[in-house]
Amino acid sequence: MNYFEHGTYLTVNHACAALMGVYGNISLAALLFASRLMIKEEHWNKKVVNFSFWSINIGLMLMVVLDLFPAGSIQFKAVVEQGLWYGRSHEFVDYGIFNKLTWMRGIGASVFFFGGVVPLTWFIVTRLRSLKSTVNTIDKMDPFLKK
Ligand code: HEM
Fold first, then answer.
1. Could you read off the pLDDT of 115-140 as tens digits, one per residue?
2. Percent of the chain predicted with pLDDT > 70
3. 32 Cβ neighbours under 8 A, 6+ residues apart
4. Is 22 touching ligand 1 by the criterion CB < 6 Å?
5. Domain residues for 133?
6. Pick from 13, 16, 30: which is nearest to 101 by CA?
7. Probe ligand 1: pick from 14, 23, 88, max atoms within 8 Å of CB?
8. How far out from the chain centre does Cα 8 lie?
9. Which atom of ligand 1 is nearest to the CA of 22?
10. Exposed/middle/buried for 108, CB within 10 Å: 0-12, 13-18, 19+?
11. Closest Cα to atom 17, ligand 1: which residue?
């Protein structure tokens, strides 16, 4: 089965969802965890971070639901029924339902990028002027350093 399926959009579906779902999200969690300690409390913007979180996850889900999974399934069916190369051919990939689904990916990608990546990048970059002073941070972390 993997011989037919490998390299179709089912691989893309699995790879994108798993990589962003596991390592993308854990990287963002680490970034936000560290930023929360470094940025002054009054300059933290929960609304932007929440909005970005939901946009990234909903955008990824829309990419999977509106394109990658259905396109991969249709491609897999084409490979099984009409041959390995047909499912990867210009004729199959650039026309019909597969091509329409590829355009649908733009919806999820836009939500991901404009609702998630752009606001989060803006938030982190603009907080550079709102960092706690190093002395205070060290004070809080280790009372012995005060001496
Ligand atoms: C941390 C979780 C995972 C990540 C980040 C991940 C990522 C990936 C990536 C990037 C590929 C594409 C490799 C390529 O074609 O060059 C892949 C393929 C594959 N993964 Fe995963 N994966 C994860 C978990 C799993 C699990 C739990 C299973 C099965 C129980 C699995 C089964 C497969 C299979 C069968 C393929 C080959 C698909 C194909 O040939 O088209 N993966 N994975």
1. 999 999 999 999 999 998 876 666 66
2. 91
3. 49
4. yes
5. 2-146
6. 13
7. 14
8. 20
9. 1
10. buried
11. 15
Looking at ligand 1, which residue's alpha carbon is closest to its atom 23? 18
| Stronger pLDDT, 139 or 29, i.e. the higher one | 29
Element spanning 71, H or E: helix 69-82
> Residues 63, 109: contact at Cβ < 8 Å?
yes
Q: How far is the CA of 98 from the centre of ligand 1 (A)?
A: 22
- Maximum separation of any 2 CA atoms in the chain, in Å: 76
User: If you take atom 27 of ligand 1, which residue's CA is the nearest one?
Assistant: 18
Using the structure block, give the residue that is written with the tokens 């779902």.
Answer: 21
Ligand 1 nearest-atom number relative to CA 10: 41
Q: Ligand 1 pocket, 138 CB below 6 A?
A: no
When divided into structural domains, the chain yields a total of 1
Within 10 A of 74 (CB to CB), how many other CB atoms are there?
Answer: 18
The torsion region of residue 142 among left (phi > 0), alpha (psi -120 to 50) and beta comes to beta
Which three-class secondary structure state does DSSP give residue 6? coil
